[in-house]
Amino acid sequence: MSQETIYAVPNVPTPGSPVKFNPEVCDGCNICVDTCPIDVYIPHPQEGKPPIVLHPEECWYCGCCVVDCPRPGAVEFNWPLQQRGYWKNKETGKTHQL
Amino acid sequence: MTTWHDYLKEEGQPPSWPYPIRFDQEQEIDTDVLVIGGGIAGCWAAISAARQGLRVALVEKGDTVRSGSGGPGCDHWCNAPANPLSRVDPDEWAQHMASRPYSNGIGIQIQCREDYDTLLEMEQMGGKIRDTGNEYVGAEGRDDATKFMISPRYGTIHSYLPDPRVGEPNFNPPETRNNVVIRVWGSTFKPALKKECRRLGVKIFDRVMGTSLLTENGIQGARVVGATGVNTRTGEFMIFKSKATIISTAGAGSLWFMCMELGGYTNMHSRAISGDGTVMAWRAGAELTKMEASAVTMIATGYRHKWYSGAGDASYENVPLVDAKGRRLPYPIQGWVDAGAMVPAPGVEDKIRQAIMKGEYELPFYGDFPSMPEVERRATWNLMLGEESTTRIIIDTFNKGGFDINRDLLQSYKFIEGQSRPQWRDAGYGGGVLVDWNLKTSLDGLYAAGTQMFAPEDHSYAAATGRYAGRKAAAYAREAGDLKISCDQIEKEKARVYAPVKRSNGIEWKELHAGIGRVMQYYVSEFKTESLFNIGMEALERIEQEAVPRLFALDPHKLTRSLEDLSMLEYSKIIIHASMARKASSVPLNFQRIDFPAVDPPEWNKFITIKQENGKVKTGELPPDFWGDMKNQYEAHNRDYTGVYKAG
Q1: What does CATH list as the number for A19-97?
Q2: CB of A20 within 8 Å of any CB in chain B?
Q3: Residue A93 vs residues A84, B363, B407, B409, B413: alpha-carbon distances, Å
Q4: Given B66, B232, B394, which is nearest A68 (Cβ)?
């Protein structure tokens, strides 16, 4: 087993990932980079790759990056744990969380 | 790989800054009309000025396509009493809306007269305002001839206050409803506005934060002749020379919040608002008013699960609330049965709270979607909630996650979170720039629109007032003489803007923000006294003298956030100055002074104004209806108004 480099890095910002990219579907068009009013993303240095989530903790959860993405399934929303809503089946009474 | 840490792991080094760095480089732009802030009001202002045939530049901190609090969407076009289904007279309705304490009668009159025209222009540009796909045939309020969807809001009177007859059977029958609010598909609006700006040749400067206004010869209080800005990706310094300038950058968002990691959930405004426009105007010498007002942000034990700020909440938005055992709560909904009441009658919340304590209602509470008629359920979920601000993504993820409106009850967080803490406050709906009947500020050459003005309202108010300010600023620009800008003023601003990037250590923007937030929470919160204000002001001045000189920013993005903090620091000081000037308590201003406990005494029923003259703070006052006769004033100032734009 090869030895992986363990870097000394500051804590990961929290919430750490408001979205998840699917690199199989995302073609790195960077429309989300330009749509985001906050600059949560920067383009990936390598063309065609999904952008880098640089400022996840600044996201205001407007969702426009996902709603305006021209390739369905390329990026999906990933609500932080504390923002995941609850619901209950009216008949069975069973509760669910997003 | 999508996160920064993933990248580091894979590449063995962090990514380089992806944009060219242009600190200290300058770009100069000459224009007739400059608009600072490209949200709803700013886009409408730019379009309206460009339609007059003038050169227009639009400056936006994000990207105009979706930026601003109304960028993601909007589900209600409020106050359109001139629409063909309305049963009220626009001028009478404007009077009615402006009768709420400390309103902006000028903006409301403009909204009531021109909101419907503005909506029709939105449709011309490609915005969806009617049920053209016949999705909601049979829904209450749908007009089959026009395919407009009238909203249950404002059934009888305006519903910011509950109608005293709520609960009486059939008190709000269809034939007497005022029909002033129209449901819209607002998620289609912002991209259409940007497209129209482009079509009209508006020069859009996305990713540029306005930092200061330029005044003639650099003199405070003189005519505004342009502005400066900084590119949020490259750090390039922007100098705009303009005959007329419109500010439309909205309120101060997260002033009382200490934790910027959670800034995105704090309220229904965009995360990016930081009082920039108000502070720019203040520094230039413009008069502000109502700056002492603030409100509790409606967060409680955590950052609230609410529609506007992430995750879904079965709030009172049309959906009947039930307890865990399915018992209906006496809480009004915004539906027809309650005439769209947005708040309960006095005492209702407390009654419910007491019943929880006694075990008569069991938590959690839920929104009972399945009990609603099918078409109302769909209209509420897909249209009313789905189009409201940041909610499209909430609806989509809930649908994807398995939530079914036909089967499931959606949890409500209003009561389970407990009372909101009074030190978590919001300045977003209070103070702003004072305007006259041309939406001109107290400075020549400077106009304001939308949430930039004092006592702002909603999305359609921003649209209508932006459109109005655009045509008034254009009229001024046509007549305006030559500009004299001051190189000294520009150099001073450059030094201020770039100071944080000259340092590589010290205090970063998040700590500065938290420091300001803490001062506001301690000294400008629920308990207000002269001595607390003095301590607060001293604390802010200490931050200014000791922390600001150590503020550092490693890249243009962090520089932007640092400059936002500096805006908020100044904004906080303005709030304290204004608060000291109001020596009485007030319910509508959410302003309780322990040292002046008299609540809304008649002699204090007035606006407190505030401005700087030669760097000194001056306060003044204006009567509560200083705008005069709304109908006559509007007509006197708009004899040339031509109604809906006819595309040429």
Answers
A1: 3.30.70.20
A2: yes
A3: 19, 14, 11, 9, 18
A4: B66
